[in-house]
Write a structure and sequence with these properties.
Elements: H1 21-24, H2 27-32, E1 38-45, E2 49-54, E3 60-64, E4 80-87, E5 94-101, E6 105-107, E7 112-118, E8 138-144, E9 147-153, E10 170-178, E11 184-193, E12 205-213, E13 216-221, E14 227-231, E15 249-257, E16 260-268, E17 277-290, E18 305-310, E19 316-321, E20 337-345, E21 351-358, H3 361-365, E22 376-377, H4 387-390, E23 404-410, E24 422-429, E25 435-436
Parallel strand pairs: 14-16, 22-25
Antiparallel strand pairs: 1-2, 1-4, 2-3, 4-5, 6-10, 7-8, 7-10, 8-9, 10-11, 12-13, 12-15, 13-14, 15-16, 17-18, 17-20, 18-19, 20-21, 23-24
Length: about 450
């Protein structure tokens, strides 16, 4: 809830306020006034006249400088003013008179106790006057008469900006209302209890960024078998956006927004900190039963491959595996002989094969046709390849210090009716020489 009870306010506001909060709640008294004061913003200033835009109704009114009750030379575009509206007898058009500059915000005197819900990171840019529609990214929450309220705040609302505040910190503040938009804010925030005290502790969560799109993404949680949404601004202003990529390990808090959990106060962790699995280091030998599927039947199905292996008690057992469980980017085919270890997911206890490597026995037993060649790198003159291979080969980086062989595997018959030619690629170390053209 974002509305604020009127009892939070005192009724003695600054001298420019023409109507008290009590009168704002009394519609009959407003209607009975012969001349109602309007709130507006100076929109344009010319040589001897200007225009004001009404904040609470769709209207733009002409005014003469003689109607401005303060020093007109001090007036500027964007200033908040109060004025009356009359009909010009000559032109029969409404004009603004009795114009008085006023404060754009009303701040109550009562101090309210609350809790930091979202730490403010964005600061209002001062470009001459306040932006009317600017809503700070910080949030303070408090409870009044059984109802929970959320008020926005920015960095400048902290009484002591040198003190670092965190989600869950207890604070006191004044409630302010922007008279132009009727939006409420938390002002003059003072810290009274830090979450680092023994009384208040908040659990931190860890995970790995799984997907990114534009300015938001999802984190795969370490404690639960599900993902959580995050916005890139939760990393803070000191983190370069190009660092925030899938695979990055993070620590974060969880907040409920609109009945959905989101990750906040995100911190990047060293690689290897987050562990989803308990890995048995014992190596096993197995045979591929089902290859990885490019388009699984279910969108959330990631472990589409299956292999068969001998257990310790000489029983045949099956394990699933996914795209990230291979040690290399080579294609695994049916009946390939592989070596692997067994991983157990700490979240749900599910077993799978991981660290899968292709063994030489696969090529000894397989009848697939293989081609071997020496790779030559020429930086200036690119070698002409057959048209049928140029769009099928993947981009591969070879290490000049390692001897490698490239094996191109022909597409199995009826594996994919729409695909023909050479699609499967395997790379493994083998005796040979990598030649580079010296300039």
């Amino acid at each position: 809830m974002t509305s604020v009870p009127s009892e939070l306010y005192q009724h003695n506001y600054n001298q420019f306020s023409s109507t008290s909060m009590k009168n704002l709640d009394n519609t009959e008294e407003i209607i009975s006034n012969k001349t109602q004061r309007e709130l507006g913003i100076i929109e344009k200033l010319c040589s001897t006249y200007g225009f004001v835009y009404c904040c609470h109704r769709d209207g733009r009114y002409f005014f003469h400088f003689s109607e401005y009750k303060n020093d007109i030379t001090q007036a500027k575009i964007g200033d908040v003013v109060e004025f009356e509206i009359i009909i010009d007898k000559r032109k029969q058009k409404p004009v603004a008179i009795n114009i008085i500059p006023v404060s754009s915000e009303i701040i109550g005197e009562n101090r309210v106790e609350g809790t930091i819900a979202v730490v403010a990171r964005q600061q209002l840019l001062n470009n001459g006057f306040d932006e009317i529609n600017f809503i700070p990214d910080g949030k303070v929450t408090y409870v009044k008469k059984g109802e929970t309220y959320f008020l926005p705040y920015d960095i400048t609302d902290l009484q002591d900006s040198s003190i670092s505040i965190k989600v869950g910190d207890q604070v006191t503040f004044n409630v302010g209302q922007d008279r132009r938009t009727n939006q409420f804010f938390a002002r003059n925030i003072e810290l009274i209890k830090n979450i680092n005290s023994p009384i208040a502790t908040i659990k931190r969560y860890r995970g790995v960024i799984s997907t990114m799109k534009d300015s938001f993404g999802f984190i795969e949680r370490e404690d639960a078998l599900k993902e959580i949404f995050f916005h890139i601004t939760e990393f803070g202003p000191n983190i370069a956006t190009n660092i925030i990529q899938p695979g990055v390990e993070v620590e974060f808090d969880i907040q409920d927004r609109h009945n959905k959990e989101v990750a906040i106060n995100i911190v990047i962790l060293p690689k290897g900190t987050v562990q989803f699995d308990e890995i048995d280091k014992t190596p096993y030998i197995g045979r591929i039963l089902q290859t990885l599927q490019n388009k699984p039947k279910k969108s959330n199905e990631t472990l589409t491959g299956r292999l068969l292996y001998d257990t310790i008690d000489n029983k045949m057992s099956e394990l699933s595996f996914g795209e990230r469980d291979r040690c290399g980017l080579y294609t695994l085919l049916e009946n390939d002989i592989v070596q692997f270890v067994i991983a157990k997911d700490k979240r749900d206890g599910m077993m799978r094969a991981t660290q899968i490597s292709l063994l030489d026995q696969s090529f000894l037993k397989s009848k697939e046709h293989r081609e071997m060649s020496i790779t030559i790198c020429d930086e200036e003159n690119n070698l002409q390849r057959p048209d049928r291979l140029i769009t099928k080969l993947k981009s591969i980086n070879f290490d000049e210090n390692k001897r490698q062989k490239l094996i191109i595997v022909r597409q199995p018959r009826n594996a994919d009716e729409k695909s023909k030619g050479f699609t499967s690629i395997r790379i493994e170390r083998a005796p040979g020489v990598l030649i580079k053209n010296q300039q």
